[in-house]
Specification:
27% of the residues lie in helices and 28% in strands. It has 8 helices and 18 strands.
Length: 307
């Protein structure tokens, strides 16, 4: 039997599912929200007391970090490398400049003052130094980190890793999903893809997964706000320091892990449909369903294996 638990964490809706072959839910299921609270105390950029906030305030000196922050930092390094720099945690200041300086629940529906000047391109992680032996990170002046979706993908993987011994597990962190494999009866997990701007109308399609892996959706239809006369969203293009200008409103990507799926989905959205799908098709581990601002739906070659 599949047992479910829904809760809020990391500023988004969470869903954890466990198929343990019993009518009784596993006791570990109730612990999952507590795990997220521990991770937010480390990784949240909105909590002034979090470890990440303390690291960002300590620019100009090497800081020893926890195992959790170190693991997410390493995941962010891999994401930046695999996306040719389009997905990087160094967008923190650019995100603040366009107004995303608080939990989105406090930002939605507001019109912010316009920017006085353009932020400019974002530094890469090449500007950051780190030492694996001492587990220290050195942020130069003017560089701060925001792990964003990479932290959600990492958290999804952590939950599935902790629960998979119970049977079959799935963790959905606001659209970043990790799965341990098929349900105990061999049936697949079913993942719905929402129609952008009209999520109440249901799914435009279903995807089916029997293997261990991840799927993530990067979209700009929900986290939008006005800054002066400019429409903003939360996907920053590091090449400009501003929200990405793209014909893609939603990119859903499958990958071996939720972290890889998250980075690839964001990369496709920033690149735009033509360049994004060309980049994605070059990696045999990736597949995507892309929805454009005009409503058109595009499918990569390998995504048809999941539809």
């Amino acid at each position: 039997m599949v047992h479910r638990l829904q809760f809020r964490a990391m500023g988004t809706d969470m869903l954890v599912c466990v198929d343990n072959g019993s009518e009784q839910p596993p006791v570990e299921l109730a612990d999952v929200p507590n795990w997220f609270e521990e991770w937010e105390q480390v990784l949240s950029r909105f909590r002034l007391t979090s470890e990440l906030s303390r690291l960002n305030r300590a620019s100009g000196q090497p800081i020893a970090v926890s195992q959790t922050l170190w693991q997410v930092f390493q995941s962010a390094l891999a994401a930046e490398k695999n996306t040719n720099g389009l997905v990087t945690p160094t967008v923190a200041d650019a995100m603040r400049e366009v107004g995303y300086d608080r939990d989105f629940s406090q930002l939605a529906g507001q019109t912010l003052d316009p920017l006085d000047s353009m932020f400019g391109n974002v530094s890469s992680l090449d500007a950051v130094s780190w030492d694996e032996d001492t587990r220290t990170i050195y942020l130069p002046k003017g560089v701060r980190l925001d792990f964003g979706g990479i932290a959600k993908g990492w958290a999804a993987e952590q939950v599935v890793g902790r629960l998979k011994h119970l049977g079959s597990a799935l963790m959905n962190c606001g659209g970043d999903i990790a799965m341990s494999g098929a349900l105990l009866d061999g049936n697949p997990w079913e993942i719905g893809v929402f129609k952008p701007f009209d999520r109440s109308s249901g799914y435009i399609g279903m995807m089916y997964f029997r293997q261990r892996g991840g799927v993530a959706t990067s979209a700009t239809d929900r986290r939008r706000w006005m800054q002066g006369s400019q429409l903003r969203h939360h996907i920053i293009d590091p090449q400009t320091g501003l929200p990405a200008v793209s014909d893609v409103v939603s990119a859903t990507v499958t990958a071996p892990t939720a972290i890889e799926a998250e980075a690839a989905a964001k990369s496709v959205l920033i690149r735009g449909s033509a360049a994004g799908l060309e980049w994605l098709e070059s990696d045999p581990d990736l597949a995507a369903l892309v929805i454009l601002e005009n409503g058109q739906i595009l499918c990569s070659q390998r995504i048809r294996n999941y539809l």
